[in-house]
Amino acid sequence: MDYNVTNNPTASHKGGPGMIYTKAIIFAVLAAAILSAMPISLAENETSSSKAANGHLQSDQNLAKPGVGGLLYSDDFSSSKSGWAQYSKGKFLALYKNGKYHVTAVPALYFSWNRLPRLNFSDFVLEVEATKEAGPDDNDFGVVVREFNSSDYYAFLLSSDGYYRVLKLQNNSWGNVPDWSKSSAIKTGNATNLVKVVCNGDKFSFYANGAKLTDYNDSSFANGRVGLLVEAKSEGNVTIGFDNLTVWAIK
What we know:
The chain is mainly β and about 250 residues long.
């Protein structure tokens, strides 16, 4: 499904905060046949210390990290059976390649994201490695969290020229959130950034490479799905490779 969105607040950080333009958003979902082949739910947590084939859903407390609880979900994208949609043509490309999940926004001024189907999280810590594989540094990439539907979610974006931003979409309208900010914690160019989001009730914290960038408070969405996002700005063909996605419970 394609959506044309006006007054999109992801305007280029190299312009002023008033430079807002229209972008197209593609909301990529799995075909019904793929979904029916993947009966995954939070009730199906597995206790294996190795990855499970059905989406790598786990709850082994032995895998706990300092400050968080058990591992709820993990994917190193080594197998296309983990369930993320794949597209080989069009404005939005997505495929498993070289042990990563590669997402490409083909046209300029194009905002694309793909959600993980059927898994719903409330309070959690999410981490994912994001590497710019191709395209200009004037881009956006990151994660969608607590996605209720294509019109209601939060997003955390980084760019390959060192900026970050938090977004909130509610009833298909962008909320009043801070503008782009620059941070030396973000690795620029063709680099890998560790993106981290903590969702705990109405409190959110956002990190890059272990450094906290900002906090955000909002109680609009208590739970929802997670997704991966890529945006091309003035130039197209931005490719981001995602790897080692994990979702941890909060103690």
